[in-house]
Amino acid sequence: MTLHKLLVYLFVLKSSWLLISAKVFKQGKDADVVYKWTKLDFKWLHTGDKQNAIRNGTFIVENNIITGIKVYSGRIFVTVPRWRPGVPTTLNEVMNSSDDRAILNPFPSWDMQKIGDCGAFQYVQSMEIDPNTGHMWIIDTGSARGGTTQCNAKIVIYDLKSNYIIRKHSFLDSVVSKDTNFLNDIVIDYVNGMPRFAYISDTGKVPKIVVYDYENDESYFFNHKSMYPENGYMTIISNGKQRNFTTPIDGIAMSPDFQYVYYCALADLNLYRIPTEVLRERGNFSQSYQYVGRKSSPTDGMTFSQQGLYVGALTADMVFKESLESLQGGSINLTEAPLFPRPMETLEWVDTFCIDEDGNLWFVANSLVCFFTYTMRFKNTENANMRIWKVNIGEQGYLWRNTNMASRHQIYYHILILMILMIKFSIVS
């Protein structure tokens, strides 16, 4: 290779690095409904399976509702919690059927959905996908509500690229109770460029932040008064309907610098954070947690981009953004930062968020108050009970920095090799 060719190759690599580091997305003005359902349906294995499931009670249409969502490489994954009987599959991938209806395909298979099989998923409320590795971190409470089987809660790490389970960790009953847990949401913490910890909100009888240490394959938890509703309960009015909630810690979000985990009770307006250093090292939670501020609305799910925190304002039926600067300064004014103009369709109960590789914020709105009060309409109606929304925010998710740095490291490696070759070439010449 001549010196001229080496210099040209080096210029191309440098230009590629500039393109990667300067990747910018155009921010959209409106949120779009990608999918909506009056009632859910699934991809059944055989003709007649659906009707058999309806007859024997393993599929009760009105007991199925979407809550969690994650998007990876154009694939949309959703959870259908087993709050009530008749939920055939709890973790799914959205797909189109032969008649172009959006249906749910059990993920990764029907076998992994069997109630009573402790090796399968019993009740999945949420999951997280690491875009750097293509690994899905799935949390399973271990038992369907009202069921007779009590499996240990577990976390399953699944490789979406190779389609196999990398790790399955069953929580000890002393860490996550088999009988009373409600593993709700999960975030991933990177240490030294590698995914090391997962932090999980347990909305059960004893509210917790559960910590899973991937490197040592062990788990432990923290319980603190800040995880409980300040006044014991909150009346939430959404789209004219109301219900009293006593739900403790629910929403959890990782800051993009991996320095803090933010959390809040659903039936409360207070937002708190805890340094990840405390969670990693089993430090003193009571002496380290921080009050961030008071939100204008109770919230369910929330997530960080590289520039701010996105939350669903349940009493305003809207999505709000809070900047990193505001959070660091302890000033919360969510009512002043709606993400987009109010759409024509309802945003009743914004539940769970994710941000894809193209800078799109995805979220589920599922009319949860109607579900809990048994007022959802499933027959002879054009009304949609559940919607998946998407809006381009021009920002990447909290895990993006590792993807970007990984790309840069590869380029730096090639540049280093080229520099060595150039030095060697000059010496030989």
Automatic annotation (TrEMBL):
Cellular component GO terms, alphabetical? extracellular region
What name goes with this protein? Bee-milk protein
Localization:
Secreted
Give the source lineage, highest ranks first.
Eukaryota, Metazoa, Spiralia, Lophotrochozoa, Mollusca
Q: Show the InterPro entries listed in the entry.
A: 6-blade_b-propeller_TolB-like, MRJP/yellow-related
Signal sequence, start to end: 1-22
Keywords, A to Z, come to: Membrane, Secreted, Signal, Transmembrane, Transmembrane helix
From the record, give the transmembrane residue ranges: 411-428
Q: What is its main location?
A: secreted
Which superkingdom, per the lineage? Eukaryota
A Pfam family hit? MRJP
Q: Which family does it belong to?
A: Belongs to the major royal jelly protein family.
